Amino acid sequence: MNKPIKPTESELEILAILWERGASTVREIHEILEQQKEAGYTTTLKLMQIMHEKGLVTRDASAKTHIYEAAVDRELTQRQLLNKMIDTVFKGSASQLVMQALGHHRSSPEELDMIRQYLNEMEKKQK
Amino acid sequence: MNKPIKPTESELEILAILWERGASTVREIHEILEQQKEAGYTTTLKLMQIMHEKGLVTRDASAKTHIYEAAVDRELTQRQLLNKMIDTVFKGSASQLVMQALGHHRSSPEELDMIRQYLNEMEKKQK
DNA sequence: CTCTTTGTACGAATATCTTCGTAAACGAAT
DNA sequence: ATTCGTTTACGAAGATATTCGTACAAAGAG
């Protein structure tokens, strides 16, 4: 069995940026992070170094300014976090989670349509 | 603005049990917790005392054996955890989260139907 | 070359979470 | 009343996460 990826809160914020932007320098990450919350530069640096030790990111250290990249798959990580949440907080009922998510995070009609299509496809495959 | 409820991993496990069972003693909680993971009795006790300090649970200490009850709303907590997750891990797209959740946590046809109904209702209300 | 800026490395302080041992209080049973 | 099992209270150790100061290296400007 694969060991679950378990980034901390702060690490997750950085991963999210890396997934979004692709390979980035510490400064680039830091600049974006700063818009979301207060953070010192060396704090961000240290975090990313630790993430490197843990294998959450890879880095290219060939130039003076290192370049970091996410080393864990986005969807896989999302899935693991979700499953854990479904188990502990939603008594194993994914549909409850889904309705909770839709009910309070106003989604556009287009998004709702996408979900509907997705539901239909799932049902077909199940037969 | 309301301060977000931010239980730790362990606290969440206990809250889930309290939500499910209603008011309970430490021993009752502990017995259930033990089925899920290894834990010493005093560890569970201490956790619940801390949760009481934090205001996550209330307790009736009139008898020798105290009785605890969840002090935070289940749905509100679920919502806050979900919203945070949507923001950081899913770029603010609830539908992406929904599809991830449905795709990998096998749901019964009944559940899928419930969600479909829910979608329809939402669409009506939006007009 | 010297000075300034930008970057990494490292260590340490702080905070938070988790776990558990020990002691004291209480009630029930003998 | 003494003993035994159950429960709470407390404190402290251990683990993990977060933050930042300082030192040093490298590159560019003058």
UniProtKB/TrEMBL annotation, chains A, B:
Q: Does the keyword DNA-binding apply?
A: yes
Is Transcription set as a keyword in this record?
Answer: yes
Q: Which GO molecular function annotations are given, in alphabetical order?
A: DNA binding
Q: Which UniProt keywords apply?
A: DNA-binding, Transcription, Transcription regulation
| Gene Ontology biological process | negative regulation of DNA-templated transcription
Pfam families, alphabetically? Penicillinase_R (PF03965)
Source organism, top-level taxon: Bacteria
What InterPro entries does the database record attribute to this sequence? BlaI_family (IPR005650), WH-like_DNA-bd_sf (IPR036388), WH_DNA-bd_sf (IPR036390)
Q: Which family does it belong to?
A: Belongs to the BlaI transcriptional regulatory family.
Protein known as:
BlaI/MecI/CopY family transcriptional regulator
Origin organism is Chitinophaga barathri
